[in-house]
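Journal club side-thread
Mid-discussion, someone asked how the predicted structure for our own chain would compare to the paper's figures. Pasting it here so we can look after the session.
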Amino acid sequence: MSMSKSYEEMCAILEKRLKPSRYQHSLGVANTAAALARRFGMNEERARVAGLLHDCGREYETAELSHEARSRGIPIGKIESAMPLLLHAYVGAYLIYEVYGVNDAAIAQAIWRHTVGGTNMTALDKIIYFADMIEPARNYPEVEHLRALSCSASLDEMMLVALTESIIFVAQKGGLIHPDTIMARNEILLEKY
């Protein structure tokens, strides 16, 4: 893990670039990710930085994200074209190098995958995805159940419930379900058979 800036310096930069509520959410995800990393015997600092920066791409308005993605050579699929907000995750994975001095492919991947998941998710990918759903400011009907799982279940058990809840939520709103989310869920289920 290579970082040219301290955690405090990253916080100061991020605070200037995000809305206050988004910055507070980012701090919540950072602390939640570090706690989950501690529980699963992983690198807490890496999880804390990934959690802090997971939404750094939200510095751009949704309408700007397609341009920002294209300028970095990020492919834009049909779902991202229809729902450009998803691109904040991919743009954010580049911003950690460009703005925050983080030269760590594992952190970049966790940020890239924090919204829709993907195949072969690492433990760090799963922790950031899950921490984003349960950080203290989150308030929705299933959040307490997910928080309880974070104290007792395995990482894959937690993710299976989280991915399922995400798919149900999006489907009930009539939204597009990203194939990466379905593949991530199926991959965990297939390991059980």
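Post-session note: The chain has a mean pLDDT of 96.
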